UniProtKB/TrEMBL annotation, chain A:
Keywords, sorted A to Z: ATP-binding, Nucleotide-binding, Transport
Location of the ABC transporter domain: 4-254
SMART domains for the chain: AAA (SM00382)
Record's signal peptide: none
Name of the protein described by the UniProt record: D,D-dipeptide transport ATP-binding protein DdpF
Gene Ontology MF terms: ATP binding
Organism: Methylobacterium isbiliense
Domain of life: Bacteria
Family: Belongs to the ABC transporter superfamily.
UniProtKB/TrEMBL annotation, chain B:
InterPro entries in alphabetical order: AAA+_ATPase, ABC_Ni/Peptide_Import, ABC_transporter-like_ATP-bd, ABC_transporter-like_CS, MetI-like, MetI-like_sf, P-loop_NTPase
Membrane topology reported for the UniProt record: Peripheral membrane protein; Multi-pass membrane protein
Native species: Methylobacterium isbiliense
TM stretches of this protein: 77-103, 115-135, 184-209, 238-264
ABC transporter domain ranges (all copies): 304-553
Pfam families: ABC_tran, BPD_transp_1
GO molecular function: ATP binding
Domain ABC transmembrane type-1: 75-264
Primary subcellular site in the record, as a coarse category: membrane
The name this protein goes by in its record: Vitamin B12 import ATP-binding protein BtuD
Length: 262, 575
């Protein structure tokens, strides 16, 4: 079954006319992107900053409205989901931000942060929320005592675990991860990646995993798409794409990765 | 809340203001219970009695009314009106500001232009217009003050709310299924609240002054009702014969406004998270050094021996670096790797005593750079050294470059700080440096501002700036962490080439052993403030002995090796 289907997605930021400031020509962030992700698999999307991968991610969760093209999540058009209100969309697809600390409200406890999706998306009754919050914390390897703490009391890795718990809380089966480990130390990265793999296996999740780090994508992805200049320039199984890149941009990307031998 | 009160009371001026306001407030509140004369009872026979007359301790005014009674009742009125005005202005102004800042777009444009129109009128003129339209009276004066102060709140709160509008956690709330109104009230408002409280507390004194001003002009409270402004107005007429009649209410206005402003300033400092925990005050130009350390012996390049750096915390000093020894010879590149919190950056900053102090303190060890004992140098000597013989390249050039200065000017400035050079020669040198770091169009790129360059170009500018005075040592603190892989590779190649061409020594800080392997001759691995392993880079990484090193290597992303299974958690060795 196809979990995510994107057809000819175009996003153009319009030209900005200004009275005094310098005018800006229109910017094409996405120039006709098409991709499909089978349910229960991970699609890795790699590319440099500015290649449009974050715009694509934000289109997928409805934070950015595409100029043209269609997105289907589990067979249902995203436009319909979005029209039905933020709740229908949030139940179908969730998003994990790059910087976990800034994606949590500094003035809310973790309990309050988890309560929002449980209440508005999953429709969990107030009495059952506490038990569900504890379950979620356990699922991401955190303690139930952490529920009463504030975001600034956590390290980056812990905060990202909490952000993942919040994405799980909605019960969505498709999760868009926008550079989820780029802000973390390498050892912490490995732990978070392992957690993501566990959760995927346990809950049958579908991931769109966006990263500029080829090795990370190779480790987690079943298929990989390479983006450059708002287009997908190469797509395939990670071992093939990285072992024998055909597009010059992919070749440059692969050559730049630090190696332990040679 | 208790912590906030404690921080507020630590501020001696704010505590003093609070004490004065407590007394004034208590007296004003208790006015009906105090044994005071009728403030409005006239007694023409006893007019203009001097202060300290038995029965009228502050004397009487031109109509023979008891000044003490009028003062207490007048203070009550002035305080009530001032506080009410502040609350109303805060409520209305913040609501407008929140709506404009959060919604943005056309709503913001319309609301803020209305506010701009209000602001275009001088405050007094605006207040006069309101009173003229509504007629004189205390309540109308209050409305006038509120209207005159709404723009102030609206603009301040709009700025704070607009800054939050695009933040990740607001979008996360949207993705959690929350409606816009709920996001505004439960996500944005709590984060803007400190701004509102601070603005209100710093303006309430000003508003009391403004209401007093309107009453003084006869537009506020109407006779016979007393308020501080009206009393001043009445006293003005007899200023020569009985100065006490005007001086007493004037003094009380001064006391109230002064202490409210002191409280407001104290509250602002107490609420400001940046001032929390630490002693407020500017860090010195150089990290403090504990007295009585042994002098350093001259070295060939950089030599650090048994360096111990501590940070003062409320719960006692904590060592971040504990006995680190390292040496960097001329032309050599030493890598310092470790997880965040291992003390590698503190070590790097301590080399030229850049660790902020307070709270930093170098507790022990020696640092020698050639013939200089860096722990014994006065700040002036350090300043000559920094940027000239020891230069730094930091992680994020966007935060280290001045956002409002053209990059060429910044590099030229770095050159001219250290030697006398005509502007034209500095420009030529800057152009040569830009060519050396392979920036495109070195002739013209100096005219760009930092935000107009890409991350890689900015880091090249930072490297050019570090090279400006032909340093002997460059300390590079995670210089490529913020960059994309392809750009990272280019920057590493550039540093490597420059080092070989110019016989530079490099102290290279990173958490990525792959990056270190690419550029460093030797590597030292840090954990918990100590160097746990050190050696020639390739040999050490090929056969790591310490578990930390193994953990760092296992965590390294390597193409062709799926690493999701193998890395074991590194054992924590924290105090």
């Amino acid at each position: 079954m196809t979990a995510v289907e994107v057809r000819d997605l175009v996003k153009t930021y319009p030209a900005r006319r200004a009275l005094f400031a310098r005018a800006r020509p229109p910017v094409a962030a996405l120039k006709g992107v098409s991709l499909t992700v089978e349910a229960g698999t991970t699609l890795g999307i790699v590319g440099e900053s500015g290649c449009g991968k974050s715009t694509l991610a934000r289109c997928l969760v409805g934070l950015v409205r595409p100029t043209s093209g269609t997105i289907r999540i589990e067979g249902r058009p995203l436009a319909d989901l979005a029209a039905a209100g933020p709740r229908a969309l949030g139940r179908a697809v969730q998003y994990v931000f790059q910087d976990p600390v800034s994606s949590l409200n500094p003035r809310k406890t973790i309990r309050q942060a988890l309560a929002a999706p449980l209440r508005f998306l999953a429709g969990v009754a107030p009495a059952a929320r506490e038990a569900r919050s504890r379950e979620l914390m356990q699922a991401v390897g955190m303690e139930a005592e952490h529920l009463d703490r504030f975001p600034h009391e956590f390290s980056g890795g812990q905060a990202q675990r909490i952000a993942i718990a919040r994405a799980l809380a909605a019960g969505a089966r498709v999760i868009v991860l926008d550079e989820p480990v780029s802000a973390l130390d390498l050892t912490v990265q490995a732990q978070v990646l392992r957690l993501l793999a566990d959760l995927k296996a346990r809950h049958g999740l579908t991931y769109l995993f966006i990263s500029h780090d080829l090795a990370v994508v190779e480790a987690v992805a079943d298929r990989v798409a390479v983006m450059s200049g708002g287009e997908i320039v190469e797509e395939g199984a990670p071992a093939e794409v990285f072992a024998a890149p055909t597009h010059p941009y992919t070749q440059r990307l692969v050559a730049a990765v630090p190696r332990m031998t040679g | 809340m208790r912590a906030l009160a404690a921080r507020l009371l630590e501020n001696r001026l704010a505590a003093g203001g609070l004490a004065v306001m407590a007394v004034v407030g208590a007296v004003a509140l208790a006015a009906p219970l105090l044994p005071l004369a009728d403030p409005n009872a006239t007694a023409p026979a006893a007019r203009l009695l001097p202060p300290f007359t038995p029965g009228a301790w502050l004397g009487t005014d031109a109509l023979g009314r008891d000044l003490l009674a009028r003062l207490v009742w007048g203070t009550r009125v002035s305080l009530a009106v001032g506080l009410a005005a502040a609350l109303l202005a805060a409520l209305v102004g913040s609501a407008i500001g929140l709506a404009a800042g959060f919604l943005g777009g056309r709503t913001e444009t319309i609301l803020m232009r209305v506010i701009d129109v209000l602001m275009a009128f001088p405050y007094l003129l605006l207040a006069l217009a309101v009173v003229a339209a509504l007629g004189p009276g205390l309540l109308n004066a209050l409305y006038a003050v509120v209207v005159a102060n709404i723009p102030f709140f609206a603009r301040t709160v709009r700025g704070a709310a607009a800054a939050l509008r695009g933040r990740d956690f607001v979008e996360a709330a949207r993705l959690s299924g929350m409606g816009e109104t709920r996001i505004l009230l439960t996500e944005v408002l709590p984060n803007v609240m400190p701004v509102i409280v601070i603005t209100a507390s710093t303006t309430v004194g000003w508003m009391i002054l403004e209401t007093a001003g309107l009453s003084f002009l006869g537009l506020g409270s109407q006779p016979p009702q007393a308020d501080l402004g009206a009393m001043l107005g009445e006293g003005r007429k007899v200023l020569i014969t009985a100065p006490a009649v005007a001086a007493v209410p004037g003094l009380v206005v001064f006391l109230i406004v002064m202490s409210l402003n002191l409280i407001g300033d104290g509250l602002r400092d107490a609420l400001d998270p940046r001032l929390r925990g630490g002693t407020p005050g500017r860090p010195g130009a150089a990290t403090r050094v504990a007295p009585g350390l042994a002098p350093a012996a001259p070295a060939e390049g950089l030599a650090v021996r048994d360096l111990t750096v501590a940070f003062a915390r409320p719960e006692g000093a904590a060592d971040a670096v504990r006995g680190v020894s390292l040496a960097v010879a001329p032309g050599e590149c030493l890598g310092l790797v470790g997880e965040s919190g291992s003390g590698k950056s503190v070590t790097a900053h301590a080399v030229t005593r850049l660790v902020a102090s307070p709270p930093g303190l170098i507790r022990g060890g020696t640092i020698a750079f050639r013939d200089d004992d860096l722990l014994a140098l006065p700040p002036e000597g350090l300043r000559r050294l920094r940027g000239r013989r020891i230069a730094y390249v930091f992680q994020d050039p966007l935060t280290t470059l001045h956002p409002l200065m053209r990059v060429g000017d910044q590099v030229a400035e770095a050159i001219r700080v250290h030697r006398v050079l005509p502007a034209r020669a500095a420009r030529t040198r800057t152009r040569d440096l830009f060519a050396a770091v392979m920036l495109p169009e070195p002739e013209t790129i100096g005219l760009a501002y930092p935000h107009e360059l890409s991350g890689g170009q900015r880091q090249r500018v930072a490297i050019a700036m570090a090279l400006a005075n032909d340093p002997d040592l460059i300390v590079a603190d995670e210089p490529t962490t913020a960059l994309d892989v392809t750009v990272q590779a280019e920057i590493l190649d550039l540093l490597d080439r420059l080092r070989r061409e110019r016989h530079l020594a490099i102290l290279f800080i990173s958490h990525d052993v792959g990056v270190v392997r690419r550029i460093c001759d030797r590597v030292a691995v840090m954990q918990g403030g100590r160097i746990v392993e050190e050696g020639e880079t390739r040999a050490l990484l090929a056969a790591p002995r310490h578990p930390v090193t193994r953990g760092l290597i296992a965590a390294m992303p390597v193409l062709g090796r799926r690493r999701s299974a193998e890395p074991r958690p590194v054992p924590e060795a924290r105090p």
